[in-house]
Structures
1.
Amino acid sequence: MRALSKPIAFAVLFALAAPAVALAALSRETLNGTWESPWPPDVLPKPGAPPRPVETTPPPLKPQYLAAWKAQQKAAAEASARGDAPVNGAAQCIPPGMPSMMNPGFPVEVLLSPGRMTVINEQLNQIRRIYLDEPQMALDDAEPWYQGHSVGHWEGNVLVVNTIGLKDAARMSGVPHSANVRIDERFEPTSPDTFEDHITVTDPEYLTGPWSWTYHYRRKSGYKIEEFVCENNRVYADPKTGGQRIRLEP
């Protein structure tokens, strides 16, 4: 077998070592900063660009709940197609809550501090606190919140998080859930400027099995989270169309 020349051998060794060097450069602090989707919804794709991936997956709802959910999604799609925006919680000044608030459709800021990680989604000024190295509370003690009650611990550079205690109004894509719903996440840095949030929802009452997907983030350097306040709270559902209408009187 012919020996590799020194330049070629060095190039091969460098190529093999590069991923390890990149991963070694990552740390827990990599998650600090402001982030956005790699495919921002407000940025039009370039001509000829591949279609944007769909990050979420259909919910594995039990048959007795699936038909109603599909009818709801169909009605919303038909309303949007005719230019009649469907009514949803955000339009009525209700925060989407977990796990929807982790969707990077709006910029997301992550702040690491001793004992906690704070996540701020610009949409409706949603704030989530993940307490580190604490036991999860008993479900009976978890007062229902939009963001739930989150605790986490580090496994190397990956933050593993468990969330319980969600309000009924905190729904992902309109999917109902029981008081026993739980959300498990793995925040995984993939480069100095990207990370992934691997999400798994389990609910023995509504779902036939785990519902999993991954949100992707890229760093949005230099961006400052802006104020987003829903002030009118005058949106209502038109009984004829099911679409949004706004009360104009004070």
2.
Amino acid sequence: MATVRTTEIAKDHALRVVRESGGRVTLPTRAVVAVLADSHDHLTADDIIAELDRRTPGIAPSTVYRVIQRLGELDVLAHVHTGIGPPVYHLRAGSHAHLVCNRCHVIRDIPVGELDAMARTLQRRHGFVLDPHHSALIGLCERCAVAGVEHEAAEH
């Protein structure tokens, strides 16, 4: 769970990058950044739009999509393909990768450093440079994996 301090740092960083790039920090930009910084969830564009509608009615969805795109271009916003629906978004403050359970759809954040050994192996053996931020690793969480093993054992 992010602390208030981490949330403020993430918001300040995102808005500073927008300014430094020559962009204007508009009300929609501030609102989108605030929603993302305040959330502990993995938000889809529709989630962001719904929360903005609750907090700051009147911001058009097309504007929200443009803000999301711009923040992504500035590399302050990560979008992650989870394999279970539309991409999810979060501010890049605090680098992490994602594990997604195919069965219960829980998304778990892990330190990106936990993938370093695999990234080195992929580069050494295949010349492939891993981007652990863009797509999630898909599989079964511990609870669903155990439940699947127990279900298989009961069938035999």
